[in-house]
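USER:
I would value a second opinion on how I read folds in token form. Give me a protein, with the fold worked out from its sequence. Write it directly below this note and I will take it from there.

ASSISTANT:
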Amino acid sequence: MSDDRDAAASSVILSFLLGGVAGAALALLYAPRSGRETREFLGEKLREGAERGRELRDQAMERGRSFLDDASGYVDRGREALDDRKERFTAAVEAGRQAYREERNKAKS
């Protein structure tokens, strides 16, 4: 069973490689430009692609920074709201304790 799988995998890999070689040969035979023109064209396209890649990277970095700034703002506002609620809760608990003390003192008197 394992030998069948190995043979099938080898056959697929060999077919892929032969197809790649045949495609490269046909591309060279039917190329509309000379070798030098093709190299210059490809070099130009690679430089343009590299420049576009840098632009995309810079845009992604800027958006990432913007996202982090926004997230930091949300976190800061959340902390402020939590601190405010904590202070109000503490004040309410203290007011409840004070009311309890006052009622206890009234009951003793």
About this structure: The chain has one domain: 31-108. DSSP finds two helices and no strands in the chain. The CA atoms of residues 51 and 57 lie 10 Å apart.
